[in-house]
């Protein structure tokens, strides 16, 4: 397993839903995340309500600078999604530290697998231990788009 990358000084990670800046998360995802462009605010609010949410915050300001969401039964499976780091703090390792924190938070559940999909961040996730599917021919998807 890969080492856990440290979170940059001046930042902290929390799963406290009261700390989430839902408006900021919606803005990031609906305007700047290729997988969620145009997502309605109500849809994002519902996604947050039904998920385990992680935020990264400036320790001095309390301002949220990154987000990740996990859909899980906490017994057998988890899907990591909506990972986003504000453009102003990219390049500081915040995304890698966030994903590692998600991995460590989920570890005690002894899940069989954590899945994710990415178009362009394979290197970030590989550092945390994610690998391509061994048998992608066994996986299927149903899309309503």
Topology diagram in text:
Blueprint: E1 11-14, H1 22-32, H2 41-49, E2 52-58, E3 64-72, E4 77-85, H3 94-106, E5 113-115, H4 122-128
Parallel strand pairs: 4-5
Antiparallel strand pairs: 1-2, 2-3, 3-4
Description of the structure:
A 5-stranded mixed β-sheet has the order 1-2-3-4-5, sandwiched between helices. It has 4 helices and 5 strands; from the N terminus they run E-H-H-E-E-E-H-E-H. With 145 residues, it is an alpha+beta fold. Helix 1 crosses helix 2. Helix 3 (94-106) links the parallel strand 4 and strand 5. The protein has helices at 22-32, 41-49, 94-106, 122-128, and strands spanning 11-14, 52-58, 64-72, 77-85, 113-115. The model has no long low-confidence stretch (mean pLDDT 95).
List the defining traits of the structure above.
4 helices, alpha+beta, 28% helix, 145 residues, five-stranded mixed sheet
Residues in helix, %: 25-40%
The total of beta strands comes to 5
Shape: globular
Helix tally equals: 4
The unreliable regions are: none
- Estimated structural class: alpha+beta
Order of helices and strands: EHHEEEHEH
Work out the strand percent: 15-25%
In short:
This protein has 145 residues and is α+β, with helices and mostly antiparallel strands. It has helices at residues 22-32, 41-49, 94-106, 122-128; strands spanning 11-14, 52-58, 64-72, 77-85, 113-115.
């Amino acid at each position: 397993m890969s080492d856990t990358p440290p979170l940059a000084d001046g930042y902290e990670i929390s799963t406290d839903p009261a700390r989430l800046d839902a408006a900021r998360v919606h803005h990031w995802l609906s305007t700047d995340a290729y997988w969620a462009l145009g997502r309605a605010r109500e849809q994002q609010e519902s996604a947050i309500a039904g998920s385990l949410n992680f935020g990264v915050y400036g320790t001095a300001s309390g301002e949220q600078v990154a987000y990740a969401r996990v859909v899980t039964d906490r017994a057998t499976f988890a899907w990591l999604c909506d990972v986003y780091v504000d453009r102003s703090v990219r390049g500081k390792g915040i995304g890698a530290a966030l994903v590692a924190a998600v991995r460590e938070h989920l570890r005690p559940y002894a899940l069989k697998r954590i899945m994710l999909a990415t178009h362009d961040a394979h290197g970030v996730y590989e550092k945390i231990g994610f690998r391509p599917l061994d048998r992608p021919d066994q996986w299927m998807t149903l899309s309503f788009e």
